[in-house]
Amino acid sequence: FFAIDRFEGRLAILEDDDERMHQVDRSLIQPDAKESDVLRLENGVYVVDAEETTRRREAVRRLQERLRRKQ
According to the model, what pLDDT value does residue 58 have? Predict the structure, then answer.
């Protein structure tokens, strides 16, 4: 999987599961993808994996809640 870290002009900066960064031309990414979406590579094109995106966002939300309760 790859997560969209940010967009820089015509490039998308992606982070893979090993925390390595990749620069990818935006034309290779599903047009409606946005920052923090999780992508998978299919036939040379990066497509949003909605299920994995939701799973990871929920994990982050739960972690934030736990951290807030500790304060």
Answer: 98
3-state DSSP assignment of residue 64: helix
Q: What is the pLDDT of residue 51?
A: 98
- Check residue 71 and give its pLDDT: 80
From CA 25, how far away is CA 32, in angstroms rounded? 14
CA-to-CA dists, residue 18 to 47, 69, 71, angstroms? 19, 30, 31
Instruction: Name the stretches of the chain with pLDDT < 50.
Output: none
Ramachandran class of 19: left when φ > 0, alpha when ψ lies in -120 to 50, beta otherwise: left
Nearest C-alpha neighbor of 7 from the set 37, 34, 31: 34
